[in-house]
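Hi everyone,

Forwarding the result from last night's run.
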Amino acid sequence: MQGGPSGIGYGLKYQARCISDVKADTDHTSFITGTLSLKEENEVHLIRLSSGGTELVCEGLFSHPNEIWDLASCPFDQRIFSTVFFTGESYGAAVWQIPELYGQLNSPQLECIDPLDAHVGKINCVLWWPSGRHDKLISIDEENIVLWSLDCSKKSAQVHSKESAGMLHYLSGGAWDPHDVNAVAATCESSIQFWDLRTMKKANSIEHSHVRCANYDAKKKHILVTAEDESGICIWDLRMSKVPIQELPGHTHWTWAVTCNPEHDGLILSAGTDSTVNLWLASTSSSDKLTSDCPVESRSQQFDPLLNSYSDYDDSVYGLAWSSREPWIFASLSYDGRVVVESIKPILSRK
């Protein structure tokens, strides 16, 4: 099954690169996405899959003042989300709230809960703890990790703690461990750093170059999946992190994004600048740990982990999001502003 013809499409007005599942919306399969136009007024789209599963409907359209480089939905309040943006001169970040009666308003305006203005350099991402209600928020710039105390009712966020990654470590992103509220993985040019938020100190690191994206397995502890520019996709058991427990070939160009299925163990999506989304079935079992007699290459050749490639895109694919409500559904976003929602049920039924 190849991408677009089987999927449900939705077009944004401008270019875009980030999309998020609205996990807190338990009544609908919803996604939120934002545009990336330097000259035009940008937009945030709240889109929902129709009850029949045949079309994507725009439930809310909101103006956003700047081009959006990162967007994440609050996992416990469907009206709250964060963005990282570029003004044309500098980067900023903010937490926003969709007005309560937005469907009844002619031109609903986003309400800024807090501007998250403790950063000086380039901000890369804002992280919410994915496993439920939590009063903390993380933002990561090139040099610092900032832990915020968030009070949505008072529309405020205060810096709880802030720590530098150290000289010669330029952070590019991160992931918050869904199994441990005090553990965060931060990616940089030459390594993956693991931080303890109680002390705001690095607890461990993996020396591994050019990691572009990291994502924890929500169903299995100690498993982290990373996407690299050149070497594709690595699956790590953090209890024995000298080498990955499995490597996947990734994409023919840069592998830009990777995300683990929220319910089904071993199902992984990846997206790249080769205009393709790949669906993988990987082994995340600790029993597959490497020994000197079992190199990565020999195990990866035992079966083809690639379940399907979705290749009907006209531009690089930067955004990926599984649906938490219907975990066999995912949304992808290509740079030309095209959202495609797919179901993997036909793929799984053939396996």
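Residues 296-300 form the longest helix (5 residues).

Cheers,
N.
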